[in-house]
Amino acid sequence: MKVILTEDVKSLGKKGEIVNVSDGYARNMLFPKKLGVEANAKNINDLKLQKAHEDKVAKEQLEAAEAYKKELEEKEIVLSIKVGEGGKLFGSVSTKEIAEAAKEQLGYEIDKKKMQLPSPIKVLGTTMVPIRLHPKVTAELKVIVREA
Predict the structure, then answer these.
(1) Exposed/middle/buried for 2, CB within 10 Å: 0-12, 13-18, 19+?
(2) pLDDT at 67
(3) Where does the Ribosomal protein L9 domain lie (predicted)?
């Protein structure tokens, strides 16, 4: 019997795949647990429509991320921090401070977890901070650290 999986099933397949299973396995395991539906003409058509919708949504999200990237790369954030002798910073600038400054200065809500800063900023000057907006889109935000 051909079955369309509605959930990922270990050792059988991923969600949305059409698999061939025995009648008993389909009736006694997959259907009662709502892990799959019978692959008839209506359900196959519904699956095609659902996949088309998911592709459309994914494309829109990618385009929105690209537009947001262009907008972010034109902006810059200025942070002031205390400096000791010889230009050494007291502490460092982390993604948390950058996210807060982006909210204050630019009005953007940027998740600090999406910033890919290898280590906190410990020097004065300009640093480009990569921000992962989408699995395929990474923006570079300009962060300027100045003496307070």
Answers:
(1) middle
(2) 93
(3) 1-47
**CB-CB contact of 133 with 69 (8 Å):** yes
The verdict on pTM exceeding 0.85 is no
First-to-final CA distance of the chain: 71
Please give the structure tokens belonging to residue 30: 């997959």
Q: 102: which DSSP letter?
A: I
Q: How far apart are CA 146 and CA 25, in angstroms?
A: 66
Sequence letter at residue 136: K
Residue 41 has pLDDT above 90, yes or no: yes
Task: Take residue 114 and report the two structure tokens written for it.
Answer: 């999406």
Q: Which residue has the tokens 């901070």?
A: 129
Contact 135, 67 (CB under 8 A): no
Alpha helices, DSSP H, located in 1-147: 23-25, 41-73, 95-101
Here the tokens at position 69 are 């990237």
Percent of the chain exceeding pLDDT 90 equals: 74
Q: Which structural domains are found in the chain, ordered by start?
A: 2-64 (3.40.5.10), 66-147 (3.10.430.100)
